[in-house]
Design goal:
Helix content is 34%, strand content 17%. By secondary structure, the chain is of the alpha/beta class. It has a 5-stranded parallel beta sheet with strand order 3-2-1-7-20, covered by helices on one side. Strands 9-18-10-11-14 form a 5-stranded parallel beta sheet. Helix 13 packs across helix 17. Keywords: Endoplasmic reticulum, FAD, Flavoprotein, Lipid metabolism, Membrane, Methylation, Microsome, Monooxygenase, NADP, Oxidoreductase, Phosphoprotein, Transmembrane, Transmembrane helix.
Length: 542
């Protein structure tokens, strides 16, 4: 079986590796001369991914790593984009992926082959550049995996007066660093992660930065209780507690860091109704006065901007639009996959339900809550390759359409209406859902009988991707050790000054022994509760 993979970013690399595991013959088409996709920084406008020079990841390395290749323990818990690329290079080297990638290869067209009705095959038209020579060819593949991502086509807003503004205007996609903005008066539009990061960075160098937001946002930290990554504590328990309770807990916790009312950030929606904005620095920059929160823009003049609250800021030099991205498939006709209002019909966000054959799959066209896209894309690829090799079967078209509609209702019940929320998925729920289909979802009850400490770690610790390599197709012998080493890996990277070893408190030892003794009944309850998690979330959302 020959499979074409479009893109050599995180999703493309994971898809390539999973194809090799299943004995599939893959070839990756990558338009650039490097791997890493959006994580590759470039000085040139229009080159590289979406990252700027100082970008660091918003999820900890233990949550974002691939399931059978954890991030090295000496890497920082929240990696700089250089380290992310280095990790991808190590992953590609470990599994010998480079030889299957065609760099400088642009995909022009993907369409059904002449014998598609019978075979399900696809024609892929590409142009490959070698030196000064570019050749264009069409090749036929049994299946295609689209891994081109959804953060490459910037969405620009439309404000009255944008065409008369005399200063600089750019999308955050084209922002590289603070150079050239020194002493400017800057308005940053949006309150997603990119907008907030750009505003915070510029606030160290500009005379004044204004952050314009339509709805406000709850600001989540990278660092949680005790200085450990917040996602260690968040990504497991958000699914074990009904959303009606969790949103109250989170609101109290986030307001304990700083009062969102006083800082002009509090939105009208609850804490889980929007993609998380993650920043430890924003409240500090606000109290320093270097960032001022403003309402939505109503009108732009030659050098001034008016806001919805009636205020006006003058002598504005630069506007940066952190307003997100559109997604689509420019190399495919809309009759193959139609994208409308930033959404399209995809079963499990992967397979078009109206195709005769399950031979076209999307990887990474999701927006995770409570986790990272890397292991989620890997899980998608694991299932896709099982479908390609007929080890897993898709349900009927009616069942797939019903599932798509159900997920849309869930999104509408939980999230505020926005183009960025059309692909929103919960990390643990989505991982469990696909793991069930693959047969790699861990059974905590069974683990509790054979290894109580490991079961305790799985249930009450962060849901690391390695948990999905304990069983099922292509298990990994190092999974147990990787799960146990989660805390040690975090500490090893940050404790660069060694302290004298302290004696562990006796009460803590007693507590751990009691928890271990209770692990089997706890595991059983969690096992039983697994099927009711989604129902609780939906009911609470309604």
């Amino acid at each position: 079986m020959k499979v074409a993979i479009i893109g050599a970013g995180a999703s493309g690399l994971a898809s390539l590796k999973e194809c090799l595991d299943e004995g599939i013959e893959p070839i990756v088409f990558e338009k650039e001369e490097y791997i890493g996709g959006l994580w590759k920084y470039s000085e040139k406008i229009g080159k590289g991914g979406t990252v700027y020079r100082s970008t660091i990841i918003n999820t900890s390395k233990e949550i974002m790593g691939f399931s059978d290749f954890p991030v090295p323990k000496d890497f920082a818990p929240f990696m700089h984009n250089r380290s992310v690329i280095e990790y991808f290079e190590l992953y590609a080297k470990k599994f010998k992926l480079h030889q299957y990638i065609q760099f400088k290869t642009y995909v022009h067209d993907i369409r059904p082959a002449e014998d598609y009705i019978k075979s399900g095959r696809w024609n892929v038209t590409i142009s490959h550049t070698e030196g000064t020579t570019t050749t264009r060819t069409t090749q036929t593949f049994d299946s295609v995996m689209i891994c081109s991502g959804h953060h490459w086509d910037p969405r620009m807003p439309s404000f009255k007066g944008m065409d008369v503004f005399k200063g600089k205007q750019l999308h955050s996609h084209d922002y590289k660093d603070h150079q050239g903005f020194e002493n400017d008066r800057v308005v940053v539009v949006g309150i997603g992660n990119s907008a907030v990061d750009v505003a915070c960075e510029l606030s160290h160098h500009c005379s004044q930065v204004y952050l314009s937001t339509r709805r406000g946002a709850w600001i989540f930290p990278r660092i949680g209780f005790g200085g450990t990554p917040f996602d260690f504590q968040f990504n497991r328990f958000v699914n074990m507690i009904p959303i009606s309770i969790m949103k109250i807990i989170l609101e109290k916790y986030l307001n304990s860091r700083f009062d969102h009312d006083k800082y002009g950030l509090r939105p009208t929606h609850h804490t889980l109704a929007q993609q998380q904005t993650i920043s430890d620095e924003l409240p500090v920059r606000i109290v320093c006065g270097s960032i001022k929160i403003k309402d939505d823009i109503t009108c732009i003049g030659e050098h001034d901007i008016k806001f919805a609250d009636g205020s006006t800021e003058t002598n504005i030099d630069t506007i940066v639009y952190g307003t997100g991205y559109k997604f689509g498939f420019p190399f495919m006709d809309s009759s193959i996959i139609e994208v409308k209002d930033n959404t399209c019909n995809l079963y499990k966000y992967i397979f078009p339900p109206d195709h005769m054959h399950a031979t076209l799959a999307m990887v990474g066209f999701i927006q995770p809550t409570g986790g990272a896209i890397m292991p989620m894309a890997e899980m998608q690829a694991r299932w896709i390759t099982q479908v390609f090799t007929k080890k897993c079967q898709l349900p009927s078209q009616a069942e797939m359409l019903a599932d798509i509609e159900k997920k849309r209702r869930e999104i509408a019940d939980i999230y505020v209406k926005s183009p960025r929320h059309t692909m929103q998925v919960d990390y643990l729920e989505f991982m469990d859902e696909l793991a069930d289909l693959i047969g790699c979802k861990p059974n905590f009850l069974s683990i509790a009988f054979t290894d109580p400490k490991l079961a305790l770690r799985c249930i009450f610790g962060p849901c690391t991707p390695s948990q999905f390599r304990l069983c099922g197709p292509h298990p990994w012998d190092g999974a147990k050790e990787a799960i146990r080493d989660t805390d040690r890996n975090f500490t090893a990277a940050i404790r660069t000054r060694q302290l004298k070893q302290t004696v562990e408190h006796k009460n803590r030892k007693v507590l751990m022994l009691l928890l271990e003794a209770a692990i089997i009944p706890i595991a059983y309850l969690c096992y039983l509760k697994g099927d009711t998690i989604k129902a609780n979330i939906i009911d609470a959302g309604k």
